[in-house]
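Hey,

Quick one before I head out. I ran the complex with nicotinamide-adenine-dinucleotide overnight. Inputs first:
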Amino acid sequence: MDLYELPDFDGHEQVVFGYDASTGLRAVIAIHSTTLGPAAGGCRMWPYACTREALTDALRLSRGMSYKNAMAELPLGGGKAVILGESRRGKTPQLFQAFGRLVDSLGGRYLTAEDVGTTTTDMEWVAGVTRYVSGLSRKEGEVGGDPGPQTALGVYLGIKAAVTFQLDRDLAGLTVAVQGLGGVGRPLCRLLAADGARLKVADVRPGAAEQLRDELGAEVVPADDIVVEAADVFAPCALGAVLNRRTIPTLRARVVAGAANNQLAREEDGHALMRAGILYAPDYVINAGGIINVAHEYRGGACEARVRADIGKIPGRLTEIFERARCEERPTSVVADQMARERLTRAA
Ligand code: NAD
């Protein structure tokens, strides 16, 4: 495997492979860029089939973090860590301490936090051995903790901006299909329901959708059908590559706006969405609420109101992308990538 020849290698500054014999830790940390500041991005734990798959994920996700942090105007670069393993079975405090030592060995070039498959508790173990970690449990009145609800807030505001732009209306009476009802999808549903949106919800986890049916009156849809459900908005909040050659022709929503990272399977899929007349809210712009929260926690000194004010800038950024995309007749995903690269080049 030649790292520099991999399709997802994008001039990454550093890639570190970590192994710890006593705990069985196998982890990859990819630092895409430190141009704007220390490379920040969460740590994902996933049962990758092989190292190559884990590396590909780390390369893609870390580049996404550079773009996300640049677009969120944070003084942070882009990085990501992945731990190869099954999060429901393979976790021990010692494993996360070993991961923390790997993070610490980079001397602050990479800041970690929780992501899919990791939690605040796991990050507390990491914090026992390094200070380069965020997303820790917080005391009353402090900023920090699980970034999921803040990500949900940004996605909710972003959906409102996309709906105003594309459909020229508000959320009351509109149908939103939400795929994935975890740390982001669940609070997102509550915010949407409070605005009068009708919800269709799906999750592969038994009981997750039924809970929101009981709480919010949401319609439960089988997980395999949620993408093709009749809805005004499709909000992907599960895993990546959900927008692809197979699914895009079947989409019935006119707006796609959700939290999942790397929603487009390939760059061409952004073009396919535009040709289909579907407005796509670029994932790393709409889902920046969590990293904004993490950044404030790490820097310290901010209050909840300041975090919310910064998250409140997400809809304005999206609208700028939508307008530029319409004007230049280019996909929103392409316009967002270009804006992010421009910011990185200016900073360099
Ligand atoms: P989570 O693991 O808490 O929830 C994901 C949910 O999706 C789970 O309930 C899972 O069962 C469900 N799911 C998985 N595959 C599915 C499928 N095929 N159909 C329906 N449901 C499925 O994760 P999360 O923290 O809610 O994050 C959701 C997405 O948003 C991820 O892609 C994550 O990378 C991204 N994201 C999260 C944050 C954050 O702050 N948590 C920030 C930015 C981006």
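The mean pLDDT is 95.

Talk tomorrow,
K.
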